[in-house]
Amino acid sequence: MSRNVFITGASSGIGKAIAYAFGKNGDDLILCARRIGKLEEIKADIERRFGVNVYIFELDVTKYDKVSKTVKNILRKVSKIDILINNAGLALGLEKFQEYSITDMEIMIDTNVKGLLYVSREIIPNMVENNEGHIINMGSTAGIYAYAGAAVYCATKAAVKFLSDGIRIDTIDKNIKVSTLQPGIVETDFSEIRFHGDKERAKDVYLGIEALKPEDIANVALYVANQPKHVQISDVTIMATQQATGFMVHKK
Ligand code: 8X3
């Protein structure tokens, strides 16, 4: 049966791959991102390929008022959200903590932590009302293992893991599943964004390693979402074969 799947950060990378995977699976999609132009292209392509309904909304998850209004608007169109995939997130910078840009730190916290909780706080009451739902949060190996130059990014991803666990406890009697996916190195525009558009520096990150692809994470998200009603996958860590821990990578 087709489900309504709400995905944040759906215009590129892992979020976009997840949209395609669930669309192919026959689910209807509610896609949010800041770049509405990209979402328009994705909507047209997914609807044409898979014949599902795709609703798109311009959304900056860091703005609570906008999140609240947009979710109300969405719930007028589709009365029920079955699955929420909190994927929007980013890393900015890779410097020693004592030299870090305060703005970069704040943007990471606003997006990865506050954005996730704003969206969840607005959507979970709908799941509670329906007495079912599934929240899939995008954590990271960075939330398990801290690494140099990434104190704040790692802290935001550790926060994602604990928000998942806390929400799972608070919704235990409502048939709501909560899962955290913790990917390692995935080749997307992640590093280009982290290095403020420095393509050369971004390319170096993926040299000598067969990194994960966004589709690898999307497959896992779909697997997690397609379990029987009584099965809840709480956490999944996904790494490239050449990655042993968060900071231990074997480069050829
Ligand atoms: C992304 C994983 O190792 O590039 O969340 O920080 S890593």
Structure characterization notes:
This protein is of the alpha/beta class and 252 residues long. The chain has one domain: 3-Layer(aba) Sandwich (Rossmann fold). The protein is built from 8 helices and 7 strands. The chain has helices at 13-24, 36-50, 64-77, 102-130, 151-170, 190-194, 199-205, 214-225; strands spanning 4-8, 28-33, 54-58, 83-86, 133-138, 176-183, 235-238. Strands 3-2-1-4-5-6-7 form a 7-stranded parallel β-sheet, sandwiched between helices. It is globular. It starts with a strand and ends in a 14-residue tail after the last strand. The mean pLDDT is 97. The chain binds 2-hydroxyethylsulfonic acid (8X3). 2-hydroxyethylsulfonic acid (8X3) binds at residues 140-142, 184-185, 246. Residues 140-142, 184-185, 246 line the site of 2-hydroxyethylsulfonic acid (8X3).
Strand content: 15-25%
Question: What profile does the largest beta sheet have?
Answer: 7 strands, parallel
Radius of gyration: 17 Å
Span from first to last CA?
Answer: 45 Å
Question: CATH H level: which superfamily?
Answer: NAD(P)-binding Rossmann-like Domain
| Multimerization state | single chain
Tell me the number of structural domains: 1
The dominant shape is globular
Which percent bin holds the helix content? 40-55%
Low-confidence stretches: none
| Strand arrangement across the biggest beta sheet | 3-2-1-4-5-6-7
Are any ligands bound, and if so which?
2-hydroxyethylsulfonic acid
Tell me what the CATH architecture is: 3-Layer(aba) Sandwich
Mean pLDDT: 97
Helix-strand makeup class: alpha/beta
Number of E-type strands: 7
CATH C-level category: Alpha Beta
Number of helices: 8
- The H/E string reads EHEHEHEHEHEHHHE
- Determine the CATH topology: Rossmann fold
